[in-house]
Amino acid sequence: MLIKAIAVDPKNPASFIEITPEKPTPSQFDLLVAVKAVSVNPVDTKVHAGLQKNGLQQPRILGWDASGVVVEVGSSVSGFKPGDEVWYAGDITRPGSNSTHQLIDSRIVAHKPASLNWAQAAAMPLTALTAWEALFEHLHIQHADAGKTLLIIGGAGGVGSLAIPLAAQRSKVKVIATASRPESAAWCRERGAELVVDYRDLKANLAKEGIEHVDYILCLNDTDGHWQAISDLIAPLGHICTIVENSQPLDQNALKLKSAALHWEFMFTRSMFTTPDIAQQGEILKQVAQLLDAGKLSTTLSETLQGLTVDTLTAAHAKLLDGHMQGKLVITY
User: For the chain, how many structural domains are there in total?
Assistant: First the structure.
């Protein structure tokens, strides 16, 4: 079996190179998957930036969020067999999906939605898991009473594009999203946002709509930049969840006075620490697949590049770093 991968070049970490890794052998819970498509996420560019800053000794294969076909299964795998079509978000501690073949823990994998092609499926897992865990495991909006409000900062991105319909369909909250461009605002409304406001001068724009406080805030963009507005807008006893790391200390005083809670969501936590509930990610993906096949969710795929090459991966990273990506970008093999 000939394996090809695109990896970060240890001699020039700003660039990618093509490598031919040896065939990996599945361990206890592993699947060996022939990758058909991979999406490119902000985590790819952030990890790449870290490697450029700190250097690396060996080529590093990036890429998470994939769809493909099971080739081999480990000794303790249940529910999967060779030939099964699967999707998953991956494990940041292991070689990534920018490869023709990849080992992945079966417990964080689910069968691919039958209604989606490879590219449409690959666009979804990482963002779906992030949105689901943030909304339903950290914020618990499914238990909120009607009339409660959820503000999603960064509604048109990959996570926001799924957080909006998931919140709209699986809770009673009023979904408010931020977007700066007309096409982004339309994208958010199409997915179920009841109100869309410009994130620039967020407090004033919400005040124009008669909104002084919100009960839940999901921050998907620039935690540092939005923190003052978040602290002011969160209602007493409210809940905040962010997926974006901060570079400056976050002033917690306003949250203390309001008895407000701050939650962090990092989709890779379960696989990184092999938590006792690691298989919950496979279960979430199974439920998301059912929603997709039932037509209650739609793929967030917005652009597809063809071919696993240095050029396509370089182009994909450049598009993400541009900062105006709407939906998801996928590379098909």
Answer: 2
